[in-house]
Specification:
Layout (H helix, E strand, L loop, with lengths): L1 E10 L2 E11 L4 E5 L6 H8 L7 E6 L2 E2 L7 H5 L2 E4 L11 H11 L5 H14 L15 H13 L5 E5 L7 H15 L4 E5 L3 H7 L2 E6 L2 E6 L1 H6 L4 H10 L1
Parallel strand pairs: 3-8, 3-9, 6-7, 7-8
Antiparallel strand pairs: 1-2, 1-4, 4-5, 9-10
Helix pairs in contact: 3-4, 3-5, 4-5, 5-6
The structure holds adenosine-5'-diphosphate and magnesium ion.
Keywords: ATP-binding, Nucleotide-binding, Transport
InterPro entries: AAA+_ATPase, ABC_ATPase_HisP-typ, ABC_transporter-like_ATP-bd, ABC_transporter-like_CS, MetN_ABC_transporter-like, P-loop_NTPase
Organism: Paenibacillus shunpengii
């Protein structure tokens, strides 16, 4: 579903991704883990072309996202992204946040978009917040709306960039539960997270980045109990 081949990314002289290659199969859940500044966000942003790699290729299915002939806007409709800081439309209600893109970008009939929105609100447990504006929601509720909004486009891939890092501790769980329930569907997911317990439980595979390099790829079982690299080991000692 996602194939990253020898990707490099530099900002000026600073090389932040150094020859990253990895694949994610359809339906697989991959957790990206690593110290702050290791390039996790940049890698996710390269996958949906919010950043262009300086070198290398990224394929989504058979489509090369780095090719100038690829219709990036179209490809992006199939890739949902959830950020640390929600990015909801402040002047739209919860319901409008969710139905906006399906109606205006995808051309879904209003009634169908509305039905789908209600189904998604039920799934994230926010049916009663439908007509509320984002400013009236808690952080955990905002993030659940952001997830529902992404899912409304029916993406094959979901990218999460530290979805719980901006939340108060008591709200982390409600968001992780929603993501966990998604992991049981056949959607393909890449999740940047500092929640090690969550990564261990939900991910099929852990990818550990440090200083722009993919240092280690392993099953959660292997990674958390017996990491191969010294760098992963010392990272885990600090965070666990
Ligand atoms: P992480 O998500 O693992 O914390 P990032 O991908 O955000 O790491 O950042 C990796 C490095 O790239 C950092 O040194 C960061 O300062 C730098 N960086 C990220 N985005 C930009 C940008 N738009 N311009 C310049 N430097 C950037
Ligand atoms: Mg980041």
């Amino acid at each position: 579903m996602i194939r990253i081949e020898n990707v490099h990314k530099s900002f000026g002289k600073l090389e932040v991704l150094k020859d990253i290659s990895m694949e994610v199969q359809q339906g697989e859940v991959v957790a990206l883990i690593g110290p702050s500044g290791s390039g996790k966000s940049t890698l996710l942003r390269c996958i949906n072309c919010l950043e262009m790699p300086t070198d290398g290729r990224i394929y989504i299915g058979s489509q090369d996202m780095t090719s100038p002939r690829t219709d990036i806007m179209k490809m992006r409709q199939n890739i949902g992204m959830v950020f640390q800081h929600f990015h909801l439309f402040p002047n739209k209600t919860v319901f409008e946040n969710i139905t906006y893109a399906p109606i205006t970008v995808k051309g879904i009939p209003t009634a169908e978009a509305a039905r789908k929105a209600m189904e998604l609100l039920e799934r994230v447990g926010l049916t009663d917040k439908k007509d509320i504006y984002p400013s009236k929601l808690s952080g955990g509720q905002k993030q659940r709306v952001a997830i529902a909004r992404s899912l409304a486009m029916e993406p094959d891939i979901m990218l999460f960039d530290e979805p719980t890092s901006a939340l108060d501790p008591e709200m982390v769980k409600e968001v992780l539960e929603v993501i966990k329930s998604l992991a049981q569907t056949k959607i393909t997911m890449m999740i940047v997270t500092h929640e090690m317990g969550f990564a261990r439980e939900v991910a099929d595979r852990i990818c550990f980045l440090e200083d722009g390099r993919l240092i280690e790829e392993a099953s959660p079982q292997q990674f958390f109990s017996n990491p191969k690299s010294e760098r992963a080991r010392s990272f885990l000692e600090k965070v666990l």
